[in-house]
Amino acid sequence: MGAQNKATGTPLRSSKLLHSDAINVLSEDELLQPGNDAAASTSSYSNSSADGYLTSTMTSPYDLSPWNSAAASPFAESPWTTHHLRHIPTSIGFVASLVRREGHVYSLAAAGDLLYTGSESRNIRVWKGREELSSFRSSSGLVKAIVVAGDRVFTGHRDGKIRVWRASSKDPSFHKRVGTLPTRAEFLRSSVNPSNYVEGRRRRRSALWLRHFDAVSCLSLDEGAGLLYSGSWDKTVKVWRISDFKCLESLNAHDDAVNAVATAGFDGLVFTGSADGTVKAWRREVAAQSKGGGGATRHVTVQTLIRQEGAVTALVVVAAAGAVYCSSSEGVVRYWRRERGGEPLSLGGALWGHGMAVLCLAAAGSIVVSGSADGTVRVWRREKGGAHGAVAVLIGHEAPIKCLAVEEAAEEPRYVVYSGSLDNSVKIWRLAE
């Protein structure tokens, strides 16, 4: 178990350029040395300053974070600066740092050799080979979540909307907005029916059930089923059909803000995590009259994996291993395993080491990566039999880690890890198997 970080202080609002000599990587052997406190050597953030996640003691999310809507045009010269190591480690280590002047990095998505980054500036930037390839910008709304499905990119925003972008077939670097969820046509059709209105949490006024009336905090794709799931601070999860962007269902999922949603890839399950401290498993059922016709869906709760005091901040599912990972404001990552014969999932254990809230998770192959308000990224390996071992602590960020992405490569080093932080940078790391 790692030492606990006792550092306190006020949130950092600006960052210095990060150079390679500020990067530290602790190996598995070093992690086992007594008195090694990796977390204490980095951030001065406190748990309460990890903005972007709601806890049950907080009020409106619009009052929480120092968002700044002003931003330069993405078509202007890029504000990013790339710093590379002269010698890239062959087994594990830091590769490059993308330092930006646009504000906090809130979302990442890796797709093949492309990296998408989202921030409070409303810009979505596309990177290839550690160089900026292109960028596109929404009209409003901080970019809270990004998922990629083929040539389409879905982005979730603070203004409660989901925007859809498509890459040009002639020039993949060019992206055009092709839709907004809900669509204008569906919104207008639904607005004339009084039964389609529900009471909104914010401002206590009614709103259409098919539209999020608070920030979209998370997105997850089930490409096999052709569905997109969106979670929001309005406590709901909505189900969208990708083919025509139609909203099929709205789940009153939790008693507080939904911070995480993850499709399982097995048994038709979807997992949701909330500031109310619970993780729920939902099973998708297709309405009888629409079987084979791609019609309405119905989701039912089949299991509550955990109830705790701290907020659930992130979820990730490894379908091949039948494993579900959950991070929380308590600084721990818990995981559940799918038993033979299906449900229910059983608690497999907990991963300790972070000194502050764990804010994000990512996984690929046998590797699980966690990012924390303590400014560190921890790497864990899932062994045969389900046990987990600590692999490394990646140190270099000067503020909480808000988002992670992992890509698995065909050759060694086997994995590429991307970490986005409130220090306004994205760092790239390489890991061996």
List keywords for this structure.
32 strands, Methylamine Dehydrogenase, Chain H, five-stranded antiparallel β-sheet, single chain, 433 residues, mainly beta, globular, 3% helix
Number of helices: 2
Structural class, from helix and strand content? mainly beta
End-to-end distance, in Å? Answer: 22 Å
Strand content: over 45%
List low-pLDDT spans.
1-22, 31-78, 80-90
Shape by Cα distribution: globular
CATH architecture: 7 Propeller
The biggest beta sheet reads: 5 strands, antiparallel
CATH superfamily: YVTN repeat-like/Quinoprotein amine dehydrogenase
> Could you name the CATH class?
Mainly Beta
Query: How many domain regions?
Result: 1
Give structural notes:
WD repeats lie at residues 209-250, 251-282, 351-380, 394-433. It comes from Canna indica (Indian-shot). This is Vegetative incompatibility protein HET-E-1-like. Helix content is 3%, strand content 49%. The chain has a single domain, classed as Methylamine Dehydrogenase, Chain H, CATH 2.130.10.10. With 433 residues, the protein is an all-beta fold. A hairpin with a 3-residue loop joins β31 and β32. The two termini are 22 Å apart.
Short description:
WD repeats lie at residues 209-250, 251-282, 351-380, 394-433. The protein is an all-beta fold and 433 residues long.
List the helices and strands and how they pair.
Elements: E1 24-26, H1 28-31, E2 81-84, E3 92-99, E4 105-111, E5 114-119, E6 123-128, E7 131-137, E8 143-149, E9 152-157, E10 162-167, E11 175-181, H2 184-191, E12 197-199, E13 206-208, E14 216-222, E15 227-232, E16 236-241, E17 246-252, E18 258-263, E19 269-274, E20 278-286, E21 297-307, E22 312-318, E23 323-328, E24 333-339, E25 342-351, E26 358-364, E27 367-372, E28 376-382, E29 388-395, E30 401-408, E31 415-421, E32 425-431
Antiparallel strand pairs: 1-29, 2-3, 3-32, 4-5, 5-6, 6-7, 8-9, 9-10, 10-11, 12-13, 14-15, 15-16, 16-17, 18-19, 19-20, 20-21, 22-23, 23-24, 24-25, 26-27, 27-28, 28-29, 30-31, 31-32
